[in-house]
Amino acid sequence: MSYMERRLADMRQYRPDRTAPEDLEKFWAATLAEAKAKPLNDVRERTSTLSPYIEAYRVTYEGFDETPIQGWYLLPAFGGEGKRPCVVLFHGYTGGKGYPEQYSDLLMLGFAVFAIDVRGQGGETGNLLPQSFGMTRGWITQGLLDPKTSYYRAITVDALQAVRWTAEQPEIDPDRICVAGASQGGGLTLMTLALSDIPAKGIADIPNMCHMDYGILNSTGSLTEAAEFVSRHPDKLEAVLRTLSYFDALNLAERIRKPVFVSVGLKDTICLPETVFAVYNRIEAPKRLQVYPFNGHYTSGDHFRKMASFLLEPAESRAEDE
Amino acid sequence: MSYMERRLADMRQYRPDRTAPEDLEKFWAATLAEAKAKPLNDVRERTSTLSPYIEAYRVTYEGFDETPIQGWYLLPAFGGEGKRPCVVLFHGYTGGKGYPEQYSDLLMLGFAVFAIDVRGQGGETGNLLPQSFGMTRGWITQGLLDPKTSYYRAITVDALQAVRWTAEQPEIDPDRICVAGASQGGGLTLMTLALSDIPAKGIADIPNMCHMDYGILNSTGSLTEAAEFVSRHPDKLEAVLRTLSYFDALNLAERIRKPVFVSVGLKDTICLPETVFAVYNRIEAPKRLQVYPFNGHYTSGDHFRKMASFLLEPAESRAEDE
Amino acid sequence: MSYMERRLADMRQYRPDRTAPEDLEKFWAATLAEAKAKPLNDVRERTSTLSPYIEAYRVTYEGFDETPIQGWYLLPAFGGEGKRPCVVLFHGYTGGKGYPEQYSDLLMLGFAVFAIDVRGQGGETGNLLPQSFGMTRGWITQGLLDPKTSYYRAITVDALQAVRWTAEQPEIDPDRICVAGASQGGGLTLMTLALSDIPAKGIADIPNMCHMDYGILNSTGSLTEAAEFVSRHPDKLEAVLRTLSYFDALNLAERIRKPVFVSVGLKDTICLPETVFAVYNRIEAPKRLQVYPFNGHYTSGDHFRKMASFLLEPAESRAEDE
Amino acid sequence: MSYMERRLADMRQYRPDRTAPEDLEKFWAATLAEAKAKPLNDVRERTSTLSPYIEAYRVTYEGFDETPIQGWYLLPAFGGEGKRPCVVLFHGYTGGKGYPEQYSDLLMLGFAVFAIDVRGQGGETGNLLPQSFGMTRGWITQGLLDPKTSYYRAITVDALQAVRWTAEQPEIDPDRICVAGASQGGGLTLMTLALSDIPAKGIADIPNMCHMDYGILNSTGSLTEAAEFVSRHPDKLEAVLRTLSYFDALNLAERIRKPVFVSVGLKDTICLPETVFAVYNRIEAPKRLQVYPFNGHYTSGDHFRKMASFLLEPAESRAEDE
Amino acid sequence: MSYMERRLADMRQYRPDRTAPEDLEKFWAATLAEAKAKPLNDVRERTSTLSPYIEAYRVTYEGFDETPIQGWYLLPAFGGEGKRPCVVLFHGYTGGKGYPEQYSDLLMLGFAVFAIDVRGQGGETGNLLPQSFGMTRGWITQGLLDPKTSYYRAITVDALQAVRWTAEQPEIDPDRICVAGASQGGGLTLMTLALSDIPAKGIADIPNMCHMDYGILNSTGSLTEAAEFVSRHPDKLEAVLRTLSYFDALNLAERIRKPVFVSVGLKDTICLPETVFAVYNRIEAPKRLQVYPFNGHYTSGDHFRKMASFLLEPAESRAEDE
Amino acid sequence: MSYMERRLADMRQYRPDRTAPEDLEKFWAATLAEAKAKPLNDVRERTSTLSPYIEAYRVTYEGFDETPIQGWYLLPAFGGEGKRPCVVLFHGYTGGKGYPEQYSDLLMLGFAVFAIDVRGQGGETGNLLPQSFGMTRGWITQGLLDPKTSYYRAITVDALQAVRWTAEQPEIDPDRICVAGASQGGGLTLMTLALSDIPAKGIADIPNMCHMDYGILNSTGSLTEAAEFVSRHPDKLEAVLRTLSYFDALNLAERIRKPVFVSVGLKDTICLPETVFAVYNRIEAPKRLQVYPFNGHYTSGDHFRKMASFLLEPAESRAEDE
């Protein structure tokens, strides 16, 4: 057995305890009910791009609160009349929805795309979630003392509403909606798969929001903001760990019922392999894992082709772990 | 002439152009009028500390908007009955008001202290300023597209209201209020001296908010947030530079009329010596400069004693540049 | 005048001496004649992608020597029958031609694409240029003691042959070929524009191969390989500087006759602004410059849209400096 | 069990072998006898501060040899006539005793303070310990080939003499002397508690001089000086490890009989958690541990308040581990 | 048991699985036969140095292919007429054979020296091994998809031919040839000892080419080039691991029959202690290990003296592990 | 004019003011007189090496005070009976005299060698200079408040006494003594050339102790210790600058009367090119400069050969600047 085989075998067997709070299911049931009851108040406006082959719309909708979440809703101008499959995309931490042209690769596959801003971050979308306590630099410590006021809750509901909005569009086949994203976007993908029946499959690249009790001590990524918050306010340790546990895919993985494609870098110090495997190992749905043994926090090579294959496969064909 | 003499002589003569927008005075006149008209809605509650010699109050007041700004108002339990001088303190970026005990050194000089949180940062104070566009990590890009909605405006008014609140306290001699702080706190000190008649003197250690047109290109500190914001949104360059110019002490330095003590580190890469000298050289009030030739972004040695001397001097005695 | 205005004004006036050797024109005349006389020995094979809208070919051709240079030749499957414009793409240092799907954004604009590997680097293309002396890590020190054996010469000719090959393809309008690339790819773009009549315009993002006598002392990029080579072999200093001068766009800029779009980051430590401006200031053709004042070695924001606008403009419309 | 619980449980059970040399007790008995027999030759001179509420003395005394060790002896000017408790303070590596004002927080609690320089470091105190062999940068390799000539021995005795001096002052209640310090100062606190009957309690923040056989291989702190010394002189490995073992709190922890308050950062790379827990787990006296799970080599938040509580508790009340 | 004793005991017992491919012996038998059959086509030319006591020759010979490998062949001008022992030296990665004078220390011991360039690296020797696929920066990914075309194979044969050439020189006692080197040179030493009967002993300082299945995941040295190659071409993982296994001393260690002296640094992140011990523990020949507990990738102190002792000992005296 | 030519031309003209104190000559006259009057109390003992061709002696002598300075005195066992030339060697900061074998290259040229420890640093030599004030990590702040007690004074006199000792040895031709060293050793070389008539020439590689008023602000080397010292004790700035000026080769360069060979790296951040050129430009003796345009704090390539050429040239042949 080579060293890499040993390392992978260890990872395949890593199965830390869940950290779910008692009222986890109740919390999410209430959250989902509230979200469903809230109108989207969406606006969809045609916008021009430099490409004659992209039919582009600037969309705003309300997610968790009144914040107008912005997104690009994009359709290829070719490929005929029928309903299309759509990929709902969540970007990585500090990023934004970018520009329509950057989704050309997915459009070229015949997919529609709905790419949203995560609130407050590097896109054009603000954030009206009230901040009632101090924070460390970044976003994740907003409202972190209580799961109900947590930024994580807001962005998860924003993501769920994006999926709901997509399913309502006339051009889209609601049975062929896929959620996807990397890092933070991968975390939101897992949350969306666990909390919504709409997505038919999901792609969670190097996802965060996984095994956060481990990540807060070991990650060099966004969880350092929570760690620094506790360092400043040592008496808030329990409250912070409790809040995180509501948004940890480790505690929700078993709710996932649709095929999922996950990727992981064994040298990733941001979304550490321990955290990704901990969640992946608990997923009971059809699943596939792409391991990048020498990658840090990035996928590489022909990864887009692997994603595309997964997207193009019939959903009923069972994803198999590679 | 030694190299250090040459370097200092160059700095003493550095006098870059002001970047003031046409309506600078109008902007501040309106802002100050609005602030003055707004009630402070303050709450002052006795709190206990472990020291029997500190009379401590937890204070909240409203500054720029409805956000309850928190502060510690502290009086030494000794030193007699009369009205006291008071130091109003603004902390550095990402920090907070901390704990009452850490101001013991000033209390021991016989001063009262009012140490506030800068909104949203590492203290206990939230931030209700609405965020209506994306941001980069940190605070300063909030509302940065318009001076009226800018985070800088909010924290400057918060600081001014802190001074106003102090002047209203029965224990305080309103003619002996000093403003002080380091880095961001030094920037707020300069702003407060320029915009309020209340403070009798000010201590601006290694201040930021100085010559920001230079800093945004060269500083490794908080202005990198604005630089990254422009990098993401290149079309916002002009708007960002314009907003910054309203809060640049370079454009307000000549309004300062009270003695001011400034410090600078020649190896500071955050609040670069060029930026501090640019402002210092324009101050026409009594002034004193402490140069730390080998310091980065920190003061050192007996700096507290230098501050204390300045605080204890009669205000009318002219500060002299060392 | 703000600090940024001062900085830009300085850059606009930076005009260091050319370092051209006496026989520069002769060298290139001979090189170009030799290249023209050499058959391309090309192979073009249809290959499948996951997208039904990309007509993709795997191409090999011979550039400077017998090395089979690999490239993707891509056509959008939509957009009608006529001859198309084409973008010939050169990648950055250590990179490769990647995968067809990543050029979807250009295809979506209606352009054909020919994206080649730079020999020996991170793509699939080897390198048969003989190595007859020691090297430092990387590629650029291969044959560096003599312009005739230099790796730079080989990759420049490879780039020129790529343009020649493109002009021969039946689907392509030879009057609407654009060359483009970033960093190393930007350097090859400038070289190709200077040395070939075929391209109708070029996009040189944050280009290297500019003012290399400055870069070898100050850049943190690939020229450190040449610097380290000289450090190991101090007696080779003159020979190395001489070889570089044959491949320095500073010495060839005045040969450029077609519109060119250049970008530069003022905080770029790899392709330093001094080096880009030195060349840009000498270009006499229609030209346009995009300055990213806060960027290191990257473009950002809507840069693709700026490139697309430039590509879509009629070539005869004069590019204007912004 | 969450990851943090697992990590803490592991640390609580970490109990590496002691490395005590055979003659450890004899060595210290002789050292203590010698120290006790040596006159302090102390000088205590009133000095002025800017605060009218601090009664300050500049003190020199002889510790291990003739080096005059300097210290600030400080009394609050308030609080009445009786004998006072006193905190004897040892600073961190490379530091110094600083300035009287910086101890205002302890004075405000009603404590006297005696803050000394550690010899030769960043204060005003020299070092007459003879250096008879080469050293690496820093202090700890002085005399490191023999416990009798070791710098560690000198500073430990200096610390013990500071305690002895304090107990002799007329203003001080000798039953309420506390020793305290962080890092190096925490190490000296543990040593002093183990070797002297005078202190009534001690506060060892993120202490060094713990489990040094582990630290010399893994710490990034001052033990790297010893490691580099061995790297230069590989034949001295045994001698160095032997010397260190005389000054390792791991070997002396069981001698501690007074309540002790210890803090540790789980991400501390200087005084690694393994080293602090190894010693803490062996202490049999009343003890309390403050774990900062996300801190490197620093305490944070309201740590001063935790220290103050511990100081103010009656010594007989048993400290309990939190 | 101290921590260092525990750490060493663990290392002494570390015995990971071999990763040898089935045809390993066949591969090397064929390779050695081919090499033996190939003429050396060597040239030996007297060259002058500044020292009258060095008899120096510039040598070229053909190793694996037609590349003329360069070396310095050096004899002390003193020490009499008889045949001499000789040290064949292989340099570290990116280095070169340097200058004759730098081998004065070995000449002063009475040894002849043959110091060669490793092909293509920082010396004067080129590299004619064809490159038929892309590479990452550096040398080791050349031909890495197939053991037959691998750069490792070429340099190993170059080293073996250097030994063969040495044995043919009239001044040399062929029974007293030692191979030696550090890092890459240490790896080549182990390979040469395993694959040739000529060397009478070998010194492998902090050797690479050991337990490469571990190193490719954990080393910060040259194996990162292979790791990055796989990151770019994920489908090549198996091929790369397979190729490396042919050149991993872990799989050839048991073929070593002559005394060998190995050194290792416990803090070496390039040639990690796990990799060196894995190989050392499998060597069945007389062996000696020098552990530098606090060293990174370097030897230190009197290491040359330890090497000299080993060189001067009669070969038959059994090396003993220290 | 290429950029490098411009840069060199600037350096050649760099001529900052001297910073010499009024009593500089008096200070050195007294120091030299005192040193001359002091007996060397030297011990010279034959020691064995592993090489039969090195005649080695372990030497101790007293330099500035009673500290026994250790050195290796080495003679080649070959080369006949007459008096030999000798190189007196001073090592770089933190180093030591090492082992006799490492000087084989100079012995091979026929030179004797006397290589000494700089007191207190990484060799075997202690340091009895009393330390009467605090220090920062390292050596140079010892006694820095007064030129008379400065560590620089002690090591300069130690170096001078080494030269004096050498001239007294029966094997040595006192007219052919050369002083040499790199970095700190280069600084001591310049000092020795300026203050003693004995040396016939000197080699100062990348020397420190040059233009220290510039270095203390800009160097990343040992002068940061002085800078940090001032940072801790801001009131000592003048005293520190004054002390340094006594040991700054800038103020003594014009005393040098013997040929000197200097080297400099244009990218050296420790001994910055400005500092080396400032001194070199003031030397009026025959001089030669080797510029390494791409080197940091190291020489490279065939530098030893350049040194050897300089050593072997007749002293009367005028060194010429290259």
UniProtKB/TrEMBL annotation, chains A, B, C, D, E, F:
Q: Which InterPro entries match?
A: AB_hydrolase_fold (IPR029058), AXE1_dom (IPR008391), CE7 (IPR039069)
Q: Which domain of life is it from?
A: Bacteria
Query: GO molecular function terms here?
Result: carboxylic ester hydrolase activity
Keyword Hydrolase among UniProt keywords: yes
Asked if the Swiss-Prot or TrEMBL record annotates the protein with the keyword Cell division, the reply is no
Acetyl xylan esterase domain ranges (all copies): 1-310
Q: Where are the transmembrane segments?
A: none
Which residues are recorded as binding substrate? Answer: Y93
The active site is formed by: S183 (nucleophile), D268 (charge relay system), H297 (charge relay system)
Q: Which keywords fit this entry according to its UniProt record?
A: Hydrolase
The UniProt entry's GO biological process terms, in alphabetical order, are: polysaccharide metabolic process
Q: Know the name of this protein? A: Alpha/beta fold hydrolase
Taxonomic lineage per UniProt? Bacteria, Bacillati, Bacillota, Bacilli, Bacillales
